[in-house]
Each structure stands twice: as C-alpha cells, then as structure tokens.
Amino acid sequence: MPAVTMEKHKDGDFFVDYEDKVFEDVQAEEGQKALVTFHTVAFEGSIGLVNILNAIRLNRKGYETSILLYGPGVTLGIQRGFPTLGDAAFPGHQNFADNLKKFMSEGGKVYACRFALQALYGHGEPSLLDGIIPIAPQDVLDLKLIHVRDNAVIVDTWTV
C-alpha cells in the first residue's frame, strides 16, 4: 500500500487562491434594476439560498433589486420554526428567513404570489415574513415585463 506522507489539513488551510478575481467588479449604473425569481421549493436544494445571497450582492452593487417568489418559491418566504415560529429546529433552519430579512433591511423588495401562497400551499398573507409584499397572480408576468422593459438584470430560478 502506498503511504500517505502529506501533512494533515488543518483549520485555516485553503485549497484555492480566493483572492485572484478574474473579472472586473461590476457596479450598477444610476437607475439600473435587477430581478431574481424563485420557482423552487424551500429546503429541496441550495439554489434558493444561493440566489437570495446573489440578490443581496446585486443590491449591494447598487442595483434596485427585487425578489419574486412564485409557485413553490413562496415557501421561501413563509414563517417557519419549531417548536414555535421563529425557532430554529436545526442549524440553517432559518437561513431563508434570515437572509430575506437582511435583503429587505438593506432596501430590497420581496414579492410573493397570492395564488401560489393560498391555492398551492395553503397559506395566507399572515404566513409571510414581515415586509414581503403579496401580489396578484397577474402581477407575476407584469413584474417580469417591467424588468425586461427597463433592461434589468434578471436571474430566473426554476426547479422541479
């Protein structure tokens, strides 16, 4: 058997050059917008959290940034917890809520489709995190069209 002679990795080690940025650090020009859409189920994969973090980053780069929760995406914006709402039953349980709250506290807007909220997932507007704006199902398309018209950066997230 070959012997492993490398020193064991330890906390603080790194495997990549995380300081070597290849592309320019793009910042928004005056009035530029961004829209990040979510048609994905909470806790079914990492994309929900990753794109909330992308929305936070877009907002910090100066884009007027909005998040659209529609279809199963509304599950990212509902209150949850165990044994009571707001409690974290496991590490990371409140990641969606914590990061959506951070996004909104930094000026981002979050919209949730009322149809998906009630008809698909059996929740009402009182289930939404504070600050999330409920919208009519017809507004889902219009919100996207407004952002297309305004030449916005659009990040669509669609998972099944």
TrEMBL record:
It comes from the Bacteria. This is MSMEG_0572 family nitrogen starvation response protein.
